[in-house]
Write a structure and sequence with these properties.
359 residues; Serine Threonine Protein Phosphatase 5, Tetratricopeptide repeat; TPR-like_helical_dom_sf; Sel1_AlgK; signal; Sel1-like
Length: 359
């Protein structure tokens, strides 16, 4: 008990006043942190995933934007169905002006099929020819390459947004195109240099499209929740924006979207529109931190801080374990914070134990 009392004098790591949060920075961090972590892990595991592709009937190349894999699944493309003769036929048709063949030839080069060397620049050239002819999937593929800046393709978010816009506009039933366009609108408008005079219109259009595809993409539900939480869109019922945001975070969280679990935990931690509840926040951070596919580094950090500072019950040993796990994650900024806070707690424990021995 004495050691806990001694350590309890430390300043709280997580006592930021909610009203002091910079909405645009929070929005920007919220929509990029999950993507960054996913892509970092994909690139790290590229060799393993490349080997897996050889025995899998589904095309897959590690490091590409996850949406590209989704696109190949939509098209029902299997690497086992393709051979040299199919490649030659595709080349002939593409050179004769077939937009469909040009699109598929782009996929041949993008994925390095039929013993071709993967070449995103040649892929982009053929996607471009197909997109110029009105092929919506080629527009999506080209938009994805420019959006991510994959390989030697220079990132160009504005050009990506235009390709997504064209694909979305020309096919009302293409929820994937609507999602990508909405995501692009949201991300670009959330950047710090986006013109204030255009901000409201672009955010409202993004919100409309997120709502349109919310039944298909939990990420869209999460993005809507962010917009409600920070007042970008207003709730049209008697509910507060925070309550609406909490409901949307809960919905996306139940669909397995870990960022929403984390954000719901923050609402409970800071009492943002919900009764402040450290126990509930701890439970949510633990769910996010132990996600089977994408363990959430920031949730590990908050969980460690709550355990270390005795919100509910104080478990110093477990707190240090979570700091260790957090420090192993790929997010550089979170890694640095976790290492710093772990060292601070460990030093306090050592000093407290030394004080007890001296007594």
């Amino acid at each position: 008990m004495k050691i806990i009392t001694t350590i309890a004098t430390v300043v709280c790591l997580h006592c930021t006043v909610a009203e002091q949060i910079d909405p645009r920075r929070e929005i920007h961090n919220a929509i990029t942190s999950g993507e960054r972590a996913f892509l970092d892990k994909a690139r790290k595991d590229s060799a393993l995933l490349r080997d897996t592709m050889q025995s899998d009937s589904t095309m897959f190349t590690a490091g590409l934007p996850p949406e590209v894999h989704h696109l190949s699944k939509i098209r029902g493309i299997s690497s086992k169905d393709l051979d040299q003769s199919e490649l030659e036929r595709t080349i002939v048709k593409a050179n004769k002006g077939s937009t469909e063949a040009a699109y598929f030839l782009g996929l041949f080069y993008l994925y390095g099929l039929v013993d071709l060397e993967p070449n995103e620049e040649i892929a982009a050239k053929w996607f471009g020819k197909s997109a110029d002819g009105g092929h919506k999937d080629a527009r999506i593929a080209l938009g994805l390459l420019f959006d991510s800046g994959y390989g030697n393709i220079k990132q160009n978010s504005q050009l990506a947004q235009e390709y997504f816009r064209l694909a979305s506009r020309e096919d009302e039933g293409n929820t994937f195109a609507h999602w990508l366009y909405a995501k692009s609108l949201f991300e670009n408008a959330s950047s710090f240099d986006f013109p204030e005079e255009k901000l409201d219109d672009q955010m409202q259009e993004a919100a409309r499209l997120f709502e349109l595809v919310s039944s298909d993409f939990p990420e869209a539900v999460h993005s809507l929740a962010i917009m409600y939480e920070y007042g970008i869109v207003k709730c049209d019922t008697d509910k507060s924006n925070f309550i609406k945001a909490a409901e949307l975070y809960q919905s996306a969280s139940q669909q397995g979207y870990v960022e929403s679990t984390y954000h719901l935990g923050l609402l409970y931690l800071y009492g943002r529109g919900l009764p402040q509840n450290y126990q509930k926040a701890t439970e949510l951070f633990q769910i996010a931190a132990t996600h089977p596919f994408r363990p959430h580094a920031q949730s590990m950090r908050y969980l460690a801080g709550l355990l270390a500072h005795g919100y509910g019950v104080q478990y110093l040993g477990e707190a240090l374990q979570w700091y260790d796990m957090c420090s192993l994650q790929t997010h550089a900024e979170v890694h640095k914070l976790c290492m710093k806070e772990k060292e601070m707690i460990a030093n306090l424990i050592e000093r407290a134990e030394g004080k007890l021995l001296a007594e």
